[in-house]
């Protein structure tokens, strides 16, 4: 629900209970900007704010599907400087993400992990109902591989953000978002599935 700003206070609460957490972040954008229109808190800054407050275990942050426009000439530098693993969308094109998720699982280990899924991580052909669509994104099948690849991790929370109903003329984005949230609920620790 909402834009990606909501993840910042959620991670404040999660870190209060669990300490710094690992993050599996699916998005077209890194959301590590410093400010926009003079504001330090907006949907393009939450993960920079989280780093500044020590809410993330930066050695266990993976950003998947990153691509498109940026306000920074070197949009990945901040992330790399923090120790994040950035997986650009082009590294995902035309392949299964099962092997990537095997690597992510090793990186996350048994410590607490949060999943933050921006619907614009998917190509707008599948999810047009978002405020910042970027072409050449992930497919729904790859989204399922990412989420299902997190099963068995110590997941302490998750979100799905940036669905914008006013841009979702067909309702496909809402349908996709609801299904992805269902999939996230199914992989939470202690949930039994068939």
From TrEMBL:
<dbReference type="GO" id="GO:0008783">
    <property type="term" value="F:agmatinase activity"/>
</dbReference>
<dbReference type="InterPro" id="IPR023696">
    <property type="entry name" value="Ureohydrolase_dom_sf"/>
</dbReference>
<keyword id="KW-0479">Metal-binding</keyword>
<comment type="similarity">
    <text>Belongs to the arginase family. Agmatinase subfamily.</text>
</comment>
<dbReference type="GO" id="GO:0033389">
    <property type="term" value="P:putrescine biosynthetic process from arginine, via agmatine"/>
</dbReference>
<dbReference type="InterPro" id="IPR020855">
    <property type="entry name" value="Ureohydrolase_Mn_BS"/>
</dbReference>
<protein>
    <submittedName>
        <fullName>SPEB protein</fullName>
    </submittedName>
</protein>
<dbReference type="Pfam" id="PF00491">
    <property type="entry name" value="Arginase"/>
</dbReference>
<keyword id="KW-0378">Hydrolase</keyword>
<dbReference type="GO" id="GO:0046872">
    <property type="term" value="F:metal ion binding"/>
</dbReference>
<dbReference type="InterPro" id="IPR006035">
    <property type="entry name" value="Ureohydrolase"/>
</dbReference>
């Amino acid at each position: 629900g909402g834009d990606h700003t909501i993840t910042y206070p959620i991670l404040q609460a999660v870190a209060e209970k669990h300490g710094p957490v690992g993050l599996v972040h699916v998005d077209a954008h890194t959301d590590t900007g410093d400010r926009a229109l003079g504001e330090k808190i907006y949907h393009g800054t939450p993960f920079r704010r989280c780093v500044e407050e020590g809410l993330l275990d930066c050695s266990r942050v993976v950003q998947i599907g990153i691509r498109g426009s940026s306000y920074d000439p070197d949009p990945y530098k901040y992330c790399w400087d923090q120790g994040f693993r950035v997986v650009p969308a082009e590294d995902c094109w035309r392949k299964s993400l099962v092997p990537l998720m095997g690597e992510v699982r090793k990186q996350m280990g048994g410590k607490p992990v949060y999943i933050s899924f921006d619907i614009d991580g998917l190509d707008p052909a599948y999810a047009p109902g978002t405020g910042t669509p970027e072409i050449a994104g992930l497919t729904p099948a790859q989204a399922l591989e990412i989420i299902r690849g997190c099963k068995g991790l110590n997941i302490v929370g998750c979100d799905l953000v940036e669905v914008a109903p006013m841009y979702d003329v067909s309702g496909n984005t809402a349908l996709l978002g609801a299904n992805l949230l269902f999939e996230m609920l199914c992989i939470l620790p202690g949930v039994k599935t068939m």
